[in-house]
């Protein structure tokens, strides 16, 4: 895609600090560096989000997740944890519409990164949960 910032990075039109590259993916430091070591993993094929992946692309991209995670852990042993995030859609905080996976090393609770979920368990009976599960199961397609 001509105007996609990540496609431009992949093509070398915009500089980046590369961490890993092969025929299928590129991993590079996020320019924002929410925490030191914040890395992005992108497929070289332009896909806007997770919904556009086929099984082959998913395999080729997601097989690198443990590899990049272990490399970050080894490079930053002082990090106490690692968030791995994949945002899909504007409401889910996706800001670049070329699929990408964030790796955010965590050093302290005050390191500038937060992910909090509301606990709505009291609003969901076993029956409501079963209905939700059935809605999802009905839509699962075989690979």
TrEMBL record:
Name the residue ranges of motif: Histidine triad motif: 98-102
Key word Methyltransferase present: yes
- Residue ranges annotated for the HIT domain, each copy included: 5-114
A GO molecular function annotation here is: methyltransferase activity
Task: Tell me the keywords, alphabetical order.
Answer: Methyltransferase, Transferase
User: Gene3D superfamilies of this UniProt entry?
Assistant: HIT-like
Q: Which InterPro entries match?
A: HINT, Histidine_triad_CS, Histidine_triad_HIT, HIT-like, HIT-like_sf
What's the protein name?
Answer: HIT family protein
Q: Give the E.C. number(s).
A: 2.1.1.-
PROSITE patterns in UniProt? HIT_1, HIT_2
Q: State if Transferase is listed as a keyword.
A: yes
Listed under GO biological process in this entry are: methylation
Task: Mention any Pfam family matching this sequence.
Answer: HIT
């Amino acid at each position: 895609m001509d105007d996609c910032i990540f496609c431009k990075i992949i093509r070398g039109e915009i500089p980046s600090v590369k961490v890993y590259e092969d025929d299928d993916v590129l991993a590079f430091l996020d320019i924002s560096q929410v925490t030191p070591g914040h890395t992005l993993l992108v497929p070289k094929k332009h896909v806007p989000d997770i919904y556009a992946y086929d099984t082959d692309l998913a395999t080729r991209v997601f097989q690198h997740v443990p590899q990049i995670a272990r490399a970050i852990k080894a490079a930053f042993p002082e990090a106490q944890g690692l968030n791995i995030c994949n945002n899909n859609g504007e409401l889910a905080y996706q800001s670049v519409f070329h699929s990408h996976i964030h790796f955010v090393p965590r050093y302290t609770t005050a390191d500038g990164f937060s992910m909090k979920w509301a606990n709505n368990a009291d609003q969901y009976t076993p029956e409501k949960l079963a209905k939700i599960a059935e809605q999802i199961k009905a839509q699962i397609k075989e690979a």
